[in-house]
Design a protein that fits this description.
Length: about 350
């Protein structure tokens, strides 16, 4: 079987990575090819077969593939081979409105992206809520597989603690030092006006790390190219770190705004804080939400940096105060995350031979 993978416009990451590695562990003789951003070739393991995502070779491998696996739209003009299967894993439980439901989009963008939706055969969903929202957003009437997210299997693997130790050591985080993962999402209006500016979505400064005497791991959204602009004391730019799941393991707490990363991080059971400084504007003008997270948040939802520092200064209190809400959040969004999502998906897509 010829299998082609695409993740975040040419990276080695996310659900496609987890699916690929699960297939490699099975030891079958498939032909694997990754679409790769030439600037990110170093993120692929040695020996991985890649083609440049913006090259004629990318079109060629897509059109000859038996199975295509992607976590974003493949924004290329190509014709799927008769009998081939295109699996769209998508890349997160949707709190923010998606595709046809968004508030802002440049003229013609949704029509262009919908051409890719028309090629899909299977849509992967991490939970029943996501199935409903993604069907609506993409106007999708095809097959949906609710399996959990393969990318989250590592969070519950026997190797999780070993990975945490390795990553913290590689990032220079001292043993016992508090590590805060800051993972803001992007802002559609600013992005469409200014492009992939590194400042998009970064609304905190070095006072947080200084006040908490912590390491601040800053992870910009996948749409934001380049590195972090104007890094502060105590910050480590982990935007280019290959696998955010490993950062979830390395961190002790996450701060985000409206990123779907919160749903994956909750698999770890570690505390979450929501820095919602532009909540009303984001909801009414920028993107919009599918539900009001403020009604039952899994952690404190604050609008100022001082409030955030206060909350993060006592994580035990935070856990106690938001423990029941956190459990409700996990029960609704993380109930399929048991470390075996990739296995369930492959049982349906690439069953083992009899």
């Amino acid at each position: 079987m010829r299998i082609v993978y695409n993740s975040w416009y040419g990276r080695y990451s996310d659900n496609p990575k987890a699916i690929y590695e699960a297939l490699l562990r099975r030891g079958e003789s498939h032909e694997h090819t990754w679409l790769a951003d030439p600037g990110r070739e170093g993120g692929f393991p040695a020996g991985t077969n890649t083609v440049a995502i913006d090259s004629p070779a990318a079109i060629e491998v897509l059109e000859s593939a038996d199975l295509v696996v992607s976590d974003v739209h493949i924004e290329l003009e190509w014709t799927k081979k008769p009998g081939a299967t295109y699996v769209q894993t998508w890349h997160g439980t949707p709190l923010k409105r998606v595709h046809h439901d968004v508030l802002l989009a440049p003229d013609g963008l949704l029509d262009w992206l919908s051409l890719d939706v028309d090629r899909w055969d299977v849509l992967l969903s991490p939970n029943a809520y996501s199935t409903e929202m993604l069907r609506r957003a993409f106007r999708w009437e095809g097959t949906v597989l609710e399996t959990g997210y393969p990318r989250n299997d590592v969070l519950l693997s026997p190797d999780a603690e070993t990975i945490r130790t390795r990553v913290r050591r590689a990032l220079g985080i001292e043993e016992g030092r508090l590590a805060v993962l800051y993972a803001p999402t992007w802002r559609d209006d600013t992005y469409f006006e200014n492009g992939a500016d590194a400042s998009v979505g970064v609304a905190l400064d070095g006072q947080v790390a200084e006040a908490l005497d912590c390491v601040f791991l800053v992870r910009l959204h996948g749409k934001i190219l380049g590195g972090l602009a104007g890094a502060q004391q105590g910050w480590i730019d982990v935007t280019s770190y290959p696998d955010i799941a490993e950062l979830y393991l390395a961190a002790d707490v996450m701060v985000t705004d409206y990123s779907s990363a919160m749903f994956d991080f909750a698999v770890t059971g570690k505390p979450l804080a929501l820095y919602a400084y532009d909540l009303e504007r984001y909801a009414a003008e920028v993107r919009g939400f599918y539900f009001d997270l403020s009604l039952d948040p899994p952690g404190p939802m604050v609008s100022t940096q001082d409030e955030l520092i206060k909350q993060l200064s006592d994580l035990d209190r935070m856990r106690k105060q938001y423990g029941e809400a956190y459990e409700r959040f996990q029960q609704k969004f993380c109930y399929l995350e048991d470390g075996h999502a990739a296995e369930r998906l492959l049982e349906r897509l690439v069953p083992l031979p009899d």
